[in-house]
Amino acid sequence: MLAIHALLTPIPRRRITIPKLTPFILSPSKSFGVINFYRLRRSHRVITSMAGSGSVSTPEHVTEKWFSVPELRLRNHRFSVPLDYSKASPNISVFAREIVAAGKEEQALPYLLYLQGGPGFEGPRPSEAGGWIQRACEEFRVILLDQRGTGLSTPLTSSSMLQFKSASDLADYLAHFRADNIVNDAEFIRVRLVPNADPWTILGQSFGGFCALTYLSFAPQGLKQVLITGGIPPIGKACTADDVYDAGFEQVVRQNEKYYKRFPEDVEIVRELVIYLAESEGGGVPLPSGGILTPHGLQTLGLSGLGSSTGFERLHYMLERVWDPILVPGSPKRISHFFLNAFETWHSFDTNPLYALLHEAIYCEGASSRWSAHKLREKVECKFDAVRAAKEGQNVLFTGEMIFPWMFDEIHALKPFKAAADLLAKKEDWPPLYDPATLKTNKVPVAAAVYYEDMYVNFRLVMETASQISSIRLWVTNEFMHSGLRDAGRQILDHLLGMNNGKKPLF
What we know:
single chain, disordered N terminus, 10-stranded mixed sheet
């Protein structure tokens, strides 16, 4: 009921004095931001008194009390924002958590906004000081944003989305949950939270880096500096998903080769498992939640297993326990419940279905994806045909960060949203996400960590985009994988800040 109430709450109305506005003109292709920026400027005089360390609340911004975890102080902010910034629309709630080092609650610190990877995942929930958050709190007031639709921001879950009466209603609603509106939310928050509505630093991880480039394209006045880790998207085409997956399959093949070199004993385990699944009734075995595990479903373990620093090990340990032991002679061979349960929890589709629904949409501007990963897989199916590989004694290749239409048939949590997912895959009128002309003349300092062997964000495509952004500095390294910020956050954040503040050489 709370989610429904948030959706139906009207935009607060009040009498205000509108200050003289500085003209702000966007071209028609960028019209999604016009009303947003007008509203932000219009309301500036009203809300600046709320900024800083005070706890003044209004109907559009509620500030809660401070609480503690070891070495940190935290407090929650809840904002009532328009679902659609381009017209009058229902409001949704957006949640952000403010964090400072213990004892610094009243200090005048610059703000750093963290943009989470995904799409469709909430911000971190720190239980103690550590990693990049501890380093950031040495000089910043950190804001962890639950991007709209995630965490405590009017969450779109596998249960809440069942409230929609039709697939078209759900698809229309989901169209408002991409980077463009995440940036609109960030600007809405910035002018209500940061003293004098000053620009802030943003740190974007993975998809959060995609959002950072959208921010640079359409609201650079809100940015003091930009830090990106493993998240520079391709730009300049109506739909870049085809380029992403075309390059992605190449990198996935290399990651598979590395995996089987590390754990050669898994070659036969995976072959045997694929044949068992293929020969089972219905072409697979039931999963605990009600879905089905098939050979091509098994291959999706590469999504997490091949791209993060500990993924190889986690996948190997999972495969170690694929079979139940034979306790009674003559009993049939069976896949263990441990393995089937581990498979279902591997992807988080039950808790974060937005990832599957919007994954290809994050690459679309004025064109449809039309299930891009599925199309591109057909070009390399000779390498990724699991059953044929198993029967011919070849290595069965896992797939990478790719969403396929059959997932909405085989994964229980996604089944109710198959029709909406198909509508989103066919949608063509996606608004722009980037402005290459603005990026080419960008003056906001940008420091980006680029992981040379990143399976999720292709190095060649990253370098093509970086060449089109002014004032960007790249730190190219093969010391870390895509999960670098999680694995060595203090080191990576310190390096990026040093690149922007003069502590690192310019060459």
